Amino acid sequence: MISPNLRIAFRFLTAKKRAMIMSLACTVLGVGLFIVTQATTSGFEEFFTRTILGINGAIRIEDRIQETMTSMAAAGSDDFYIANREGVKYIEGVEEPQRIADAVREFPNVRGVSAVVRGNVQLTSAFKTEDAQVLGINLEDHVRVSRLAEQIVAGELENFRSATGGALVGRVLADRLQLTVGDSVSVAARGQARRLKVSAIFETGYREVDKTNLYVLLPEARSLLRRPSGASFLQISLHDPARAPLDARRMEEILKHGAKPWQEREKTWLDVFRALRISTGITVSVFTLIASLAMFNTLAMIVLEKTKDIAILRSMGYERRDITRIFLWQAGIVLAIGSVLGALFGWIVTWLVERVPLRITGIFKADHFLVVRDGDHYLAAIATAVVMVMVASLIPARRAARLEPGDIVRGTAQ
Amino acid sequence: MPSPFSLLPSPASGIALRCTGLHRYLGVGEGRVHVLKGVSFEARRGEVVAIVGPSGCGKSTLLYLLGLLDQPDDGQIEINGAVMSNSDDAARTAARGAHIGFVFQFHFLMLEFSALENVMMPMRKLGRLAPDAMKARAHALLESVGLGAKTHRLGTQLSGGEQQRVAVARALANEPAILLADEPTGNLDAKNSALVFDLLTRLAKEQGQAVVLVTHNPEIAQRCDFTRAMRDGVFV
C-alpha cells in the first residue's frame, strides 16, 4: 500500500507543476552535466594512462640500491651515483637484468618484463641529422610490456624481428629525417657509426617519445653503445596496473632496486587531470545548487499555500514527522525522477560528445572527444543531487512541521 | 441499507469531554489578551452542545483547546477520561486522530483530492481498517451525507454546501467520540446550513457522539440539546 504521506506529497507537488518542473529541470541538468564532465575528463585521463602504460609499462626498475654508510664507486664507466639518502645509494642501471627479471616474474600481478638498454645517439639521413634515444629491446619481451605492436603505423614488425640491422623509428623523428620504411639511416654513438634500415615506423601519440625514440634489437644496442652486459632499466607490465605502487614497493624491498610505478612517474599529469575533474565537477554542481534552491523555493511556496491543509492533516492525527515526511517526499519524488532523467540525459550527451571530432596531439593522440562511462560517475552525480536537494528541502519541511494547527485555523500562523 | 456506523462504547459517566479552569492568553507584550478566564465545560455522548457568544469572546479558542489543537496556559482537559492538557504533542496528535473529529467554517477540504480521498485521509493515518474497508466506509459516509454520486469529484468541483458535507463525513471517518464544529454553517446559505446541521446532529446521535459546535446562528443554537453562552472569556 502506498504511504499516505507519499500520496499527499505527490498531489501537493503536481499542484505546483511549473515550480516542480523548474526544480526537476535543474536536477536533470545538474545530474546530467555532472556525468558528462566526469565522463570526458576521465576519458582523457584514461586514454593518457593507456598511452603511457603502452609506452613505458606500469613499473620501471632503473637503479640498484646499495645500503652503505660509506661512499663506494659504482662499477662500469656509465654508472654514477644519482642519490644518497640516509646511507642508501642508488646506482643507475640494472647489473644483472636476467636474475632480476626472473625474480620479478615471480610476482603474481606481473604480466611481462623487458630488459632495455638505452643510450643517446645521432641519426643522420640523406636530409639532416637529429639527436635521438636508442632503446635496445628483446622484441618478444617488449611487446608484452608495451603496445609497440599496435603502434606501428608503417612497415611490419616482422621485418624488424627477422632482419639484422633493422630499426623502429618514431613517426615524428622519421618525418624530421624524411625517412620511410626501407630507408637507410646512419646511427652514431660513442665515436662509432653504423647504418640501420628502417623496418617500421611507430607512433605512440606521445610527441616527445615519437620525436626521440628509436628501437633496435638488444644485441645491436649493446654493440652500438658498447655495453656488453646489464640493462638501463627493466620495463614491467602488470595485470592490474592500479596496484603498481604496492608491487613497486615490494619489488624495492625484495630486489633492492629502485622501482617506480607509473602513478609516481606521471604524477604531474595525473594531478592535472584530477584537478580538472574536480574543478569541472564543482562547476557543474552549480546546476545542482540551483536545483536545490529551486526545490527550496518550490517547497517554501507549497508550505505557504498549504498551511490550511497542514492544519487539516494535523487535526486528523497526522504527526509533525508526517508533515516533514510529506515535504521530504516531494523532494524525493523530484530527485528520483530528476536522477533517472538526468542519468539518461548524461548518457545521451556523453554519447553525442564522443562523436565530436577533436584533434589532439601532445601527450596522446586522439581525433575525437574521449569519454569513459563509469557507474561511479552516475552514483556521484546522483549522490551530490540527493545531498544538496535534501538539505535544501529540510528547511521548509521542518518549518511546515513546526506550524501549530491552532494558529493556522485561528489565522495567526507565521 | 445497514448503518455504516458502529456504536461507540459509552463510559458509565457518558462524559466524552471535560475541561476545568481553562485559561488562555493570546498575543505578546502589550497586545497580550486574557482570552479564556477559567472556563469549565463538559460534553456527554449523544448530546449536541452549542457555544454561542459575540465575536472575540473566546468561543473558537475554547474549541481549539478542547480539540487539542492548542494548549491552555492553565487548567485541565480530559478526553474520554484521560487528562490530555499536559501531554506532549505526539500524544495530543494521536488523541486527535483517534477520538476527535473537526468541522471547520471554511470547509478546509484538501482540494487536490477527491471527496472519497478526503474522507479516507484520517482512516489512512489511523490505519485501523484494511484499504478495502476504508474505501467502503468512506463510500458509506459520503452516501449518508447525500454525496454518493460525487465521491470521485475533486474538492474544487464541489459547491460550498457539498464541501462542508464532505467535511462532516471526514470528521466522522474514524468514529470519533467527540465532534467539534467551528461555525460549520457560517459560510453556507440557509438551505445548506439546515442540511449540514441536520446531518451533524443525526449522525452524531446515531453514533452516540458528543457534538460541540460554535455558532453565531441563533436558529442553529436553539435546535441543539444545550446552549452555553460566553462573554469576555467566561460562560455566562
Summarize the structure.
The complex is a heterodimer of chains A (414) and B (236). Chain A is an alpha+beta fold and 414 residues long. Chain A is built from 15 helices and 14 strands.
What does this structure look like?
The complex is a heterodimer of chains A (414) and B (236). Chain A has two domains: 4-52 and 269-410, no CATH class; 57-261, no CATH class. Chain A is 55% helix and 22% strand. Chain A contains 15 helices and 14 strands. Chain A has a six-stranded mixed beta barrel with strand order 4-5-10-7-9-8, surrounded by four helices. In chain A, a hairpin with a 5-residue loop joins strand 13 (357-360) and strand 14. Chain B is of the alpha/beta class and 236 residues long. Chain B has seven helices and ten strands. Chain B has a six-stranded mixed β-sheet with strand order 6-7-8-3-9-10, with helices on both faces. Chain B has a four-stranded antiparallel β-sheet with strand order 2-1-4-5, covered by helices on one side. Chain B is globular. The N and C termini of chain B lie far apart (44 Å). Chains A and B meet through helix 1, helix 12 and helix 15 of A and helix 1, helix 2 and helix 3 of B.
Question: Layout of SSEs?
Answer:
The complex is a heterodimer of chains A (414) and B (236).
Chain A: H1 4-15, H2 17-56, E1 59-67, E2 81-85, E3 88-92, H3 97-105, E4 110-124, E5 129-137, H4 139-145, E6 152-155, H5 157-162, E7 166-170, H6 171-177, E8 184-189, E9 192-202, H7 207-212, E10 213-217, H8 218-225, E11 233-238, H9 244-255, E12 257-261, H10 262-265, H11 267-305, H12 307-315, H13 320-353, E13 357-360, E14 366-368, H14 375-402, H15 405-410
Chain B: E1 15-26, E2 33-44, E3 48-52, H1 59-66, E4 74-79, E5 82-83, H2 89-99, E6 100-103, H3 115-126, H4 131-144, H5 160-171, E7 178-182, H6 190-207, E8 210-214, H7 218-222, E9 226-231, E10 234-235
Parallel strand pairs in B: 3-8, 3-9, 6-7, 7-8
Antiparallel strand pairs in B: 1-2, 1-4, 4-5, 9-10
Helix pairs in contact in B: 3-4, 3-5, 4-5, 5-6
